[in-house]
Each structure stands twice: as C-alpha cells, then as structure tokens.
Automatic annotation (TrEMBL):
Lineage of producing organism: Bacteria, Bacillati, Actinomycetota, Actinomycetes, Micrococcales
Family (UniProt): Belongs to the L-aspartate dehydrogenase family.
InterPro entries: Asp/hSer_DH_NAD-bd, Asp_DH, NAD(P)-bd_dom_sf
Start and end residues of each Aspartate/homoserine dehydrogenase NAD-binding domain: 4-46
Residues annotated as domain Aspartate dehydrogenase: 112-146, 171-229
Signal peptide coordinates: none
Protein name as annotated: Aspartate dehydrogenase
Pfam families xrefs: Asp_DH_C, NAD_binding_3
Origin species: Brevibacterium permense
C-alpha cells in the first residue's frame, strides 16, 4: 500500500493514524505524524515505533520542546504539566451528556475558565482526540533516553546495564504518558488556543505560554499545526 511513496505525511486524525500509521512504518517508509494522540494507544504505539520506517513526531501547536527534551534526557525533570484552554463550544463532544454539553453552550465570558478535564495525556486523548494531541507530543518530548535502568536508579545504572533489559521508546513513552499532567479548560469567547507548560526538576524550572490562531480552514485546529508539519517535512527531506 505504501511501497510507492518516499515519505508519508499523516493529517487524518487519531483513529486513521492508529490504523494506517503502523503499516507505513512496517513498509519501511518515514512517517510524519500529525495526530500524535495515536501514540497514546499501546497497540498503535508499538506499531508506530517498531520500524523499520522512522517515525517523525510533529510539535503541533506548542514550542519549547527542545529545551524540555534536553532536560528530560539528562534525567532533569520530575514534573511536567500542561494547561490548555480553548473556546467552550469547540470542546463539546458527542459522548457528553446533554447537561454537560449545555453547560458549555451556556458558558459566558464572565464565568471564567471551566475545567472540563484533569488527568494524563492517555486519558485526555480518549475524551478529546481532536484537542489534546499536543499533550501527547509533550509526553513524547519528555520521555528521556533509552537506558537499562530507570532514572531513579541512576547511581546503579552502570552496574545493572548488562543485566537489565533496555527500555525502548515505547516503554519510555508509556511511562511519560502516565507522568505528564493535563488540565483542559473551556473559555467562552476565547479566539485563540492557549497552552501553559510547566516543568521542574534538577535541571531547573521551566514555564512556557503559547497562544495560537486557529487555522482559517479548520477552526478546531491551530494554524501552527500546518507550519509544524511543513517544518518537520523539511527536516526529514534534508536528512
């Protein structure tokens, strides 16, 4: 199916990415993944990271991940969290009860932010697959490096390296998806998506705030998402 392509760019949503992405990887093709939330599912995650094709994860609508990735790879982060706020009506989901949906429809600017979710990225992507791909991207960036021993055992890592199995990217991401904390807020009349990222540990304290304009073609998606895909694709093509 993918044999005649030099590179595959996914822009089809989490379900399609989880279904077809592993096949592109198995065919040995580089895959640029936009719907990063597909990595939250254990089966899709295993397939997307199995090779022989290489997975390229886009940053989507957030930045600063290079700094956090560097800190995480040095075991320098103990906590990572992201608070995302979006226009209230854009967070209404078919699975919501009518009272829940009506509460979002009736939210006014004077009501302030309404928290609609708190948890980890894997839980968030199940409930809001179109809104929190960035939380999974954050977990991916802060997964750390492959090693034979967990970060907490860094003192004994050298001694155990020959006996302990190497942790794969899938293992690291699975742990990171449990560690990252996500808060999703609805704000009536908010025209831009806002993301506040905070992380701390021995590497220091980090805080980022990003506000992005929605795509003119799809108001549910940040305009930065397309720019991130283009940047990732340029990097892949120049490797």
């Amino acid at each position: 199916m993918f044999d005649r392509f030099d590179i595959v760019v996914e822009c089809a949503g989490v379900p399609a990415a989880a279904r077809f992405g592993p096949a592109a990887i198995a065919a040995g093709r580089p895959l640029v993944l936009t719907s990063v939330g597909a990595l939250a599912g254990p089966d899709a995650r295993a397939g997307l990271l199995a090779g022989p094709g290489r997975l390229h994860v886009t940053n989507g609508a957030i930045g600063g991940l290079d700094v956090l990735e560097a800190a995480a790879q040095a075991d320098g982060l103990d906590s990572v969290e992201i608070t995302t706020s979006k226009e209230a009506s854009g967070l209404i989901r078919p699975c919501m009860s009518e009272p829940e949906a009506e509460r979002l429809r009736g939210l006014g600017p004077e009501d302030g932010p309404l928290t609609v979710f708190e948890g980890n990225p894997a839980e968030a992507i199940e409930k809001f697959p179109a809104n929190v791909n960035i939380a999974v991207a954050l977990a991916w960036a802060t997964r750390g490096l492959r090693s034979a021993a967990p970060a907490s055992d860094s003192g004994a890592r050298a001694a155990s390296a020959e006996t302990a199995p190497e942790r794969t990217d899938a293992d690291l991401l699975g742990a990171s998806l449990e560690r990252v904390r996500v808060v999703l807020q609805a704000v009536a009349g908010q025209t831009q998506s806002a993301h506040r990222i905070r992380a701390s540990g021995s590497a220091g304290e980090f805080a980022f705030e990003i506000r992005s304009t929605p795509s003119p073609e799809n108001s549910a998606t940040s305009g930065l998402t397309a720019l991130s895909v283009a940047r990732t694709l340029r990097n892949v093509l120049t490797e």
